[in-house]
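W.,

You were right to be curious about this one. When I first looked at the sequence I had no strong expectations either way, so I just let the prediction run and decided to look at it fresh. Below is the sequence, 95 residues in total, followed by the output.
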Amino acid sequence: MTSKKDRVYVLDNLGLANGVRLHYCQVRQQHWLLFPEGAIALNPTATAVLSSCNGDRSFEAIAEILKSQFCQVNISQVQDFLQQMMRRGLLISQS
């Protein structure tokens, strides 16, 4: 029987895809996700989520980071956001 820690979750070990990067625009005082086809303006929560996706962290570790930075974190919204970024090809599994 495998323990919870032994299982690999689809949202574990995510990192930015090739050609995708986080950028802080001084003029607009805002973080952006830049990719070859365009750019997405990010709110502070989205910035924190994507900044935590370094390719080595489990989803549980990312959730803990967010809980330490924000008062209320809706984990299902974080899951939805990460899945949406994966569907768009902006986040990929690094494992």
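Here's what jumped out at me. DSSP finds three helices and five strands in the chain. And, maybe more interesting for your project: The helical segments are 44-52, 59-69, 75-87.

Coffee later to discuss?

I.
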